[in-house]
Amino acid sequence: MEGTTAQAQYVRATIVIVGACRGSELDNGIQADSGTVNDTDANPKYKIPVEADFLFAYSTVPGYYSWRNPGRGSWFVQALCSVLNEEGRRLEIMQILTRVNYRVARDFESQSDDPHFNEKKQIPCMVSMLTKELYF
């Protein structure tokens, strides 16, 4: 995926949200204790890399299963919608996605009669090539 030419006045970001499995591995989880942008360039014209200003938000890391609840939908989308509703106008996109990661990791665990699919976990993954902070 390549970006388009951006004018000097603004940067157009592309956000891709993927809520799908990226493999078939299951995460058993582990026990844990609780435990300045440089604006000094006087030249108003500049080039940016073609891959700049993309953000990919994946529901899970490569190789792993992405869980969903039949009645409420995917864990990732549930957490994303919740964080956006609560704090989407106040936080920067990376802060939002970090909170989504936290909620999916801490608040969700699979429940199944099949021991192979019971008590499994999930962690979302983000890949950012953003060059500036992004607020909604």
TrEMBL record:
InterPro entries: Caspase-like_dom_sf, Caspase-related_regulators, Pept_C14_caspase, Pept_C14_p10, Pept_C14A. One of its GO terms (molecular function) is cysteine-type endopeptidase activity. Pfam families: Peptidase_C14 (PF00656). Residues 44-136 form the Caspase family p10 domain. One of its GO terms (biological process) is proteolysis. Belongs to the peptidase C14A family. This is Caspase-7. It comes from Orycteropus afer afer. The gene is CASP7.
